[in-house]
């Protein structure tokens, strides 16, 4: 008698040795770390990681800015690589495929949010790192590592026509900016502002320009002007310059706020025109004070947006492949991650660090 196929590969029977870099405690430097991942189950793929982007959320997590971190913490949710093994029931991918993983590695796939293709809001969703694994007491570990195992439904197809290291940041910075730009139907005839020219901000500029909008960068750093215009922005405003800031009050239809640190939302809401919307994607740890008056006078909306679902992430990757959009990156060795975090903290990145996993 033959066994049912499901029983042939036991998902958690044996473990897969992995190595990476981890913060062992809050705010500590990342150090080399050996750990185990589950062996691929019937619906899993095993990926050899080629590159992983460095998101400001990784730094927020290491510092426990949001009060939800667990240690040891292996960050990294802008993962690209190659499939080296597939489970028996995998149908979407095959060995040798170039693929990506973003912020999510699993969800219930049954709740309202999952049925609506917004798995990021599944109450039982599993984040790429710092989450409890589905059906297991283990925690998830992210992409600052040599390999990862993931349910096939959370693995994205990546064009091999684009330079892979520059595609990695699309898995978080790309989808996080694409999703609200799409949802608020940004396009020709609209004046759009992007606050903060960092990892998310520079992707937002490229994507909003590709969607046909008139794009202004609002930055605290005057020296980023040439880069902003080179990225395709039509205008650049130094927000700490009172005259420049005054010149854009009441002008934008849509503002995307990517600032990672505490700031005054009212100042930027003043730059919206009547009926305009400002969407927060930046996630400072501290709460902000916004009087109702700021929104009521001008029918303004203040909204938020969290990454994007899996189908929309694939849509964004296909959009970027078609428009030839990738990130501007600085490729670093794994051992240089702590220095990279310091530079990121000082808004000194052009415009995303990406770790070359061959350096591990
Ligand atoms: P980043 O590369 O460090 O860029 C942040 C930018 O914010 C900086 O380059 C700087 O731009 C600006 N900035 C920093 N401190 C500021 C301050 N005190 N006042 C004004 N502007 C300031 O970070 P990132 O990776 O793009 O991430 C940005 C934020 O988005 C983080 O909080 C991250 O956790 C969050 N995030 C959210 C989601 C989501 O789903 N909502 C997903 C990913 C990341 P200038 O130099 O141009 O002023
Ligand atoms: Zn991120």
Describe the structure concisely for a colleague.
With 360 residues, the chain is of the alpha/beta class. It has helices spanning 56-62, 112-115, 164-167, 173-183, 199-210, 225-230, 242-246, 265-269, 292-296, 310-323, 337-345, and strands spanning 15-23, 30-38, 44-53, 79-86, 98-101, 104-106, 126-127, 147-151, 156-157, 191-195, 214-219, 235-238, 252-257, 272-280, 301-304, 329-333, 352-356.
Tally of helical segments: 11
CATH homologous superfamily designation of the largest domain: Medium-chain alcohol dehydrogenases, catalytic domain
Would you report the number of β strands? 17
CATH class division of the largest domain: Alpha Beta
Which small-molecule ligands are present, each listed once? NADP nicotinamide-adenine-dinucleotide phosphate, zinc ion
Q: Mean of residue pLDDT?
A: 95
Morphology: globular
SSE run: EEEHEEEHEEEHHEHEHEHEHEHEHEHE
Give the biggest beta sheet: 7 strands, mixed
The share of residues in helices is 10-25%
What's the structural blueprint in terms of helices and strands?
Elements: E1 15-23, E2 30-38, E3 44-53, H1 56-62, E4 79-86, E5 98-101, E6 104-106, H2 112-115, E7 126-127, E8 147-151, E9 156-157, H3 164-167, H4 173-183, E10 191-195, H5 199-210, E11 214-219, H6 225-230, E12 235-238, H7 242-246, E13 252-257, H8 265-269, E14 272-280, H9 292-296, E15 301-304, H10 310-323, E16 329-333, H11 337-345, E17 352-356
Helix pairs in contact: 4-5, 4-10
This protein binds NADP nicotinamide-adenine-dinucleotide phosphate and zinc ion.
NADP nicotinamide-adenine-dinucleotide phosphate binds next to α1 and α5.
């Amino acid at each position: 008698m033959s066994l049912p196929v499901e029983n042939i590969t036991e998902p958690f029977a044996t473990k897969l040795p992995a190595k990476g870099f981890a913060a062992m405690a809050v705010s500590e430097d990342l150090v080399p770390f050996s750990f185990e991942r589950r062996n691929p189950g019937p619906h899993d793929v095993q990926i050899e990681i080629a590159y992983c982007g460095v998101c400001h959320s990784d730094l927020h997590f290491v510092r426990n800015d949001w009060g939800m971190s667990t240690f040891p913490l292996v960050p990294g949710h802008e993962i690209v690589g190659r499939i080296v093994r597939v489970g028996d029931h995998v149908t979407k991918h095959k060995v040798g495929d170039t693929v990506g993983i973003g912020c999510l590695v699993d969800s219930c796939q049954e709740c309202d949010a999952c049925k609506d293709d917004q798995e990021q809001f599944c109450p039982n969703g599993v984040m790429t790192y710092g989450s409890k694994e589905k059906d297991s007491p283990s925690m998830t570990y992210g992409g600052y590592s040599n390999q990862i195992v993931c349910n096939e439904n959370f693995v994205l197809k990546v064009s091999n026509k684009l330079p892979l290291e520059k595609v990695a940041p699309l898995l978080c910075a790309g989808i996080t900016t694409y999703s609200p730009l799409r949802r608020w139907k940004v396009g020709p005839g609209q004046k759009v502002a992007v606050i903060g020219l960092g990892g998310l901000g520079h992707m937002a500029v490229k994507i909003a320009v590709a969607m046909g909008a008139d794009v202004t960068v609002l930055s605290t750093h005057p020296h980023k002007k040439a880069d902003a215009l080179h990225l395709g922005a039509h205008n650049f405003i130094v927000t700490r310059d009172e005259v420049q800031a005054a010149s854009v009050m009441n002008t934008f239809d849509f503002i995307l706020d990517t600032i990672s640190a505490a700031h005054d939302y009212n100042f930027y809401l003043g730059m919206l025109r009547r009926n305009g919307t400002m969407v927060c994607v930046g996630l400072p740890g501290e709460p902000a004070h916004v009087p109702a008056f700021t929104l009521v006078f001008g029918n303004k909306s203040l909204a938020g947006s969290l990454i994007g679902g899996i189908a929309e992430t694939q849509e964004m990757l296909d959009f970027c492949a078609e428009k030839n959009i990738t990130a501007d990156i600085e490729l670093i060795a794994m051992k240089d991650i702590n220095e990279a975090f310091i530079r990121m903290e000082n808004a000194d990145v052009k415009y995303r660090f990406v770790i070359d996993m061959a350096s591990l």
